[in-house]
TrEMBL record:
Alphabetized PANTHER family for the sequence: DISULFIDE BOND FORMATION PROTEIN D (PTHR13887:SF14), GLUTATHIONE S-TRANSFERASE KAPPA (PTHR13887)
Protein name from the UniProt record: Thioredoxin
Keyword match Oxidoreductase: yes
GO MF annotation terms: oxidoreductase activity
Organism: Desulfopila aestuarii DSM 18488
Record-linked Pfam families: DSBA
InterPro entries reported in the protein's UniProt record: DSBA-like_thioredoxin_dom, Thioredoxin-like_sf
Domain (DSBA-like thioredoxin) ranges: 15-111
Amino acid sequence: MFEQNKENIKVVFKNMPLSFHKMADPAHRAAMAADMQGKFWEYHDRLFKATTLSPELLDKTAKDIGLDMTKFQQDRSSMIVEQRIRKDMVDAQNAGVTGTPTIFINGRKLNERSMQGFQMLIDEELAKAQK
């Protein structure tokens, strides 16, 4: 889906660590710290491939992708990361997000979560933009 639309779409990730998942907040903080070194998606993709999250995995993943570990440790406990996550959570609440993942295309919530559903909504939004 992304490949056939790469000229027309931009993927934006927002944080919403769920309180009942004990590793959600540490994982989000770690991913934001990786982002501060320009490696958010690489870090994100590796975490999503993992079967279980642990503090050790968060550090190992950072090392494996070549992050500066001192900066990584500082950034994930920084006020900047805290504020980014808090802002994303407020935005999610304001948008009516109740769980993850929730997907929006041009502000419209994707309900039909199939490849055809994605493409249909993208096509509708592209048609609107060309009017």
